[in-house]
Amino acid sequence: MPQQLSLYASLPESELKITLQTLSSIAGMPPQPFLEHSLLWAPKHPYVPVLAAGQVNQIEQYRIRVSCDLISLTEEEEEDIEIEEKKENSNKQIPPHLATDPDYAVKRAVLPYADISAHPALSTRPWTFTVAELPEAGKLSVISQSLISVSPKVPAGDHTPFEFLDKLGYVFRTEYWTKGYQFVHGNVVVRIFRLCGFDAHAFKNELEQIREAEKNVQPPEAAVAAAVAAKNEILEGDFLRLLDATKRWTMVALINVESITDLDAIARATAELERFRADVAGLVDLELPERNSFDTRIKRR
Fold first, then answer.
1. In terms of Cα–Cα distance, which of 202, 201, 175, 42 is closest to 114?
2. What is the value of pTM for the model shown?
């Protein structure tokens, strides 16, 4: 079972620029933007054991986080578009067969799970399932947490990952987007991010304007152009809103160790994180958050 070691810090909006510049110098690379869509699923029927005096619950149920990296998805499709452009000798334009594909924009756009019925292509994204255990207790210098992550491969025409979760007895609860920047320094992955929700009102207004414009399009050539314009408006629209009104950023420095039983690797990773904490001391204060804030278990009521 993989083990993730980490340290956290909180940054005000005013310190973001200097932090990115300093981390860029330390890591020797520019900040890489990332955008991740996460869905949280919970058991439909939580297990509530009847415990006698002196007994403890031996069965724990966990929430499952289902996530997808939208930036990587976009980059992969950009490569596909470039290949198609060369084949059709187009000048930086979306090929017509992609422009008229109703799933093209959906695969790249920021869309909520609530639109799954209107856009089934959401279920075909490369989702990753993650279950996180409560971090280890004790006097540790870093957060040490066991993670189980899988990327299910669903054959064409077979059940979607979401149908699998439904049959597993899980139901969708909520979703959020993680938006920010990341660096890699040695084995340390540094992420600076904020959590966002979906602005359904702004998205609805944008869709209404696009649909109204499409009503007046009749010729086939114009229909293709309208499809391209409509999809680009959806892609370029920013329909995310910050969940934290203070606009603060969260910074995490983490190292993933392949196995929880590899004590030497865990010790080396811990030492590397501590060195990184010393390197950025004075810029940010990396520390251990409250252990219970990482608890994804289903609580008994």
1. 175
2. 0.78
pLDDT in tens, 246-282: 999 999 999 999 988 889 999 999 999 999 999 999 9
Total length of the chain:
301
Tokens representing residue 24 in the block = 């860029």
